[in-house]
Amino acid sequence: GSSTPKACTCNEGFTGPNGGDCVQCEQGKYKSVDGSESCQDCEEGKTSPSGSTSQDSCSIECAPGTSGPDGGPCNKCGEGTYKANPGTEPCETCPDNSNSALESINIFECECNVGYGGPGGGPCTACENGKYNSLPGMSGCLLCDAGKFSNEGAPKCTDCGVNFYSLNGSSSCDACDDFSFSEIG
Description:
The protein is mostly beta strands. The protein has strands at residues 14-15, 23-24, 29-30, 40-41, 46-47, 59-60, 66-67, 75-76, 81-82, 92-93, 98-99, 111-112, 116-117, 125-126, 131-132, 142-143, 148-149, 158-159, 164-165, 177-178. The chain contains no helices and 20 strands.
């Protein structure tokens, strides 16, 4: 029953002059009343989806280690991923041959897989022949003990067997010498 266009007002979540075009409140703002009032800013460090109608819509950005839209929901970064900064950016994948725990916040939490060595955050390279790495996150590979050998990328060394011997860091079963004959005579 209004008789003039100026009687038309913008709804909650929108702003503009009475009788004019209404514009949706921007992300990080809200408006909880009808009329020409301006959209209100969320508190510092908080944000809201576009067109928010209450201060309750303002929430914290997704924290490091989580990802999702501003205002949530925020999902934890999965194993093998990380996210250093707050916001909507997706979680990043760890470098090749490394993994991270759930909700990791930086690349340095990406630890080399078993059989690989390198610093946290990579690059992770396969352990060389004669070396091994049995623990995720070890920065380097260890030499096989005497009497054992390993191939590239080994998580552990293999025993040469009874009556066979090899030097530290042996790279194959061929490096194991049969010393049983040397005991005779």
